[in-house]
Amino acid sequence: KGKSESLLEAAKFIVELVGKGSITISNRDTSYPSRGAACIDAAVADLGYNPQTTLEEGLKVYYEWLQNKI
Question: Using alpha carbons only, how large is the chain's radius of gyration in Å?
Answer without folding.
Answer: 15
